[in-house]
Amino acid sequence: MSPRVMSPVLVGRSAELRELEDGLAAAPGAVLVGGDAGLGKTRLIREFTERVGGRARVLTGGCLELGSDGLPFAPFTTVLRCLVRDVGIDGVAELVPRGDTGGLARLLPEFGEPESDAASGEERARLFEVMLTLLERLAERGPVVLVVEDAHWADRSTRDLLAFLIRNLGTAPVLIVVTYRSDELHRTHPLRPLLAGLERVERVRRTEIAPLSRTDIGALVTELLGQPPPSGLVERIAARSEGNPLFVEALLDDDGTLASELPESLRDLLLAGVQRLPEETQDVLRDASGGGTRIEHALLAVVTGLGDAALTRVLRPAVAANVLVVDGDGYAFRHALIREAVHDDLLPGEYTRLHRRYAEALENDPGLVPSGRLWVELSYHWKAAHDSTWALVASWRAAADARKAVAYAECLAMLSRVLELWDQVPDAAERIGADQVTVLEKAAAAADEAGEFDRGIKLVTAALREVGYEDRSGDRAGDGERDPARVAMMLVLRGRMRYQMARPGFVEDLRAAVSMLPADPPTALRARALSTLGNYVRLTPDIEEAHRAAAESLTIARKLTDPLAEAEALITRFCVEIDYADDSHLSEVEKTAESTGDHRVMLRCHVIRSHFLEGAGRHEEAVAVAGRGIELSREYGVARTQGTFLSINQAEPLVSLGRWDEAVAVLNHAMEQDPAVTTRTSLLVLSGWVAMSRGDLATARERLAVAGEIMNLKMKWLKTQDYFSTLWLEACLALAEGRPEAALDAVRPVLDNPGLPDDARYSWPVLVAGATVCAELRDAGDDLRRIEERAARLDADGPLQQAHRLTFRAEASRARGVLDVAAWTEAAAAWEALGNPYNRARALFHAAEAALAGGDLDPGDDGSGDHRADGHQVAADWLRTAAELADGLGAVPLGERVADLLRRTRTPRASESSAPLGLTPREYEVLRLVAEGRSNRDIADALFISVKTASVHVSNILGKLDVASRGEAAATAHRLALFTAHTGQDAAPVS
Predict the structure, then answer these.
(1) What is the spatial distance between Cα 599 and Cα 608, in angstroms, rounded to a whole number?
(2) How far apart are CA 359 and CA 344, in angstroms?
(3) CA atoms within 13 A on the CB side of 798
(4) Among 316, 696, 814, 845, which is least packed, fewest CB within 10 Å?
């Protein structure tokens, strides 16, 4: 029996092909293709790319398995290498901004050397932006399909870049196709959350390849045999293969029989095709299995000891049997499972000797693998060969390469391996030229850059123990090593990561760092430590300490003439002393920041300026400044980080201005970037409030629930903006759902926590909500008293806070039973001056409500309802303005309340026809209420008139209808079908 050749026809995947075709037609976008091993993902992609190859440029790269660490940016390196072969270095340069390919040097040495070995987070972000620009500009010449295969093996950096590209595709026709092995995605697999997040992004499709059906298996067997199969064969193959195409091919011999003698286990099934090959071919395949999914021809020739011609001859049967496929200048196993099965079949001694041969081959000739892969592969092979010394050395070098490529997660993995091997290598420090503390420090820094804050905290804590600063209980230890600057830097690093994780102790770490740095002589390190301390301690109630830290930091910076330290100190001082009525200090901050030329500081200026402008009620300016900051972040290649944070400062004033659709677009785009916890809460609260105000309570509840979960991870005083804003949304939503007591529960923490940073800005909206709840309850004396006491102690800096205070006073009066027209009109005018249509509409509604509650008739009115007071007409005008504003915003709940009150005023309009039966519009409205069985008291309350006036209206109605009682009047209304029975809406007038 001879091995079966792969079917030339793709069977049973028409739906998946259509999904891919549709994805290309709708590009830009992405298709995520999952499926168990052997179900045919690679074959599907091959078919698709062959179909579209004539009308789209196809770029394909695969993720490589090297132990559990992967290879940084492996698929993108492959894509770039193929593109260079296609269009040349100059051709690629035409596709990137300013023709500068230096950023790509971190992925491919053909582009030269990176500007520096110590790659920053901004340089990593710039690399991402360059890749995005390259794809989009390439797509201007025609559609582009980027295929990333085997994403279940993707390293952290590849996953990050992939997510960035998918989330930031513009309008160019780029389709990104990602394949992954579903059965590899265990519960904690790092790809799982990425897929879940990407699935929520607009224009992303996700499809799972299912096992073949019985019909499809029959079609595949027919294609493999070249003729209809014998009776019963398809059923037996279906039972054994369970619809897996790879197993179908492996089980079927070309004589049309089922290989029933094969063992049941998957491993043996996969090895069956290998075992049918000549022995010398099997030997070479065992050697090839040690090199990963793909191996270069030249490297395999050295490892096997065969010359080129001999190696080609020996491997030809494996290629013919589809166990191996030719892939450029090397080979790949047809399926990774086959490689794994062959590799796992090695005996322990064979395994060790094989990886040693690989390592020695690479040591002797580094050119056997592409540049950038050498040290990570040596780390893998030396570790597999149980050579701890050289595995440690290679891992250290691999970490440096990963750092240079801004692959921080992979750098952390390699440094973790160094630490794992440290005790096994007696002269480890001499081998790598660094002590264990240095490795711990570098690993902690890599963890910080990679966002692995929990791991980073553990690493820096271990470093502090090694230098004798702390014992295992976390207490201060004995004297130990005393390099104050080194220990201080560790403490600053740990404090920053503890803050990101909302862990207690971050302020204590920063205080300790400052205490270890002497004030005399002054140093830039102390200035920056103080600035960092001030920036974080301002988030706690100890504002005075923040003031002192910022002041001393500024003094030191100026004494040293260090503009960067001075700019950082000025920013901290401005944040600590923010006054929304005075922007004089802001110009000094901006001038100093610009003098540094440091774009990180300049971006921070855009953050604080837009934050200040919104807090001062200068919404249009805030939108413009935040927008410029976002553009600047794109220019510097950090749109995904600082740009996303600035989205908060752009969306918030857009919400204030009533440009809700624009705000929602900004918020949705920012959320698609998978922002950090410290950014996400504000995005959720803003989008939840807009949803609630538009009547979408389900979405608002969902946003609040997620924000609440985040806040549970954070300390309540971590950030007033997050804590109080979440409580504000909770109170507003509870009130909208008719749960006033729950709304008060949300308000009470704000009453209990005065004096937090930026207290007034974020307390006023909550206090307004609390007063509104008290007004609805009509019996909240103690709560109202506490709310008023809290407000009395609160400043109102700037026009925005003053508008909130005016609104609060009007609401508090309403809660005490006083409907103050003047208070509400003053609030409405304040909101109009700020350009806030929603709050203006709300204030106008309550102003009209207050005016109508005072009676709608002049003292001399005869009760006929024909004469209206001027105040009544003004109230109606206010309501019409409020209705227009609410309608323009899509604020359905507010619009409905306004419409209901406007309807109940029954003010005649020029276009409004008279009521039937000779009734005035007001009498017609009273009759509707009589028909509902309402008493005169009920009618008076509903229409904001006195009981006496309601009685006069009823008497006039009885006379005009020629009936003797209220009951007869109601019966007449029902008989004539003047009003619908259930909704209370007017029916068509009956003449």
Answers:
(1) 14
(2) 19
(3) 21
(4) 316
